[in-house]
Design brief:
Blueprint lengths: L3 H24 L4 H30 L1 H6 L6 H52 L15 H7 L1
Helix pairs in contact: 1-4, 2-4
Length: about 150
Amino acid sequence: MIDEERIKLMARMASFEENEGKKVIRLTEYFQSDYVAFQMMKTAVSATAAWLLIVGVRLLCQFDTMIAQFYETDFAGMAKGFLREYLIILIGYVLFSYFLYTSRYTKAKKEVKVYQKALKRLSVMNGTGETENTGIAPGRNKSAQRERK
């Protein structure tokens, strides 16, 4: 006789694996600090590129005024103002990304723990009593998984 509870559990697990599970499982293969630091670096690069584009457009819009008043323009003061804006924007975006990606990692870790518990439960239902080698090892990074192989 087919166990209805086991079929429901397998269906939920398959749904998780097909939908958000791929991304979540891949994300938790990294250490939290590595994942968050990498995402913060990507944010810093993106914020820098966006800031450079905005400053470029602003300078192009004011180019005729700057040329007309070339000798009266305080380029050092203007550069300090741009640098101040850049640092404020960069720090804001990097802090935002830190909190965002830390919370995403924590949420993903919880989802993987639930998934692993479901795997153990399914293993017990099947009567094997052993957990299957899923390749999901919380707290391990990719290099540690490669060493196991």
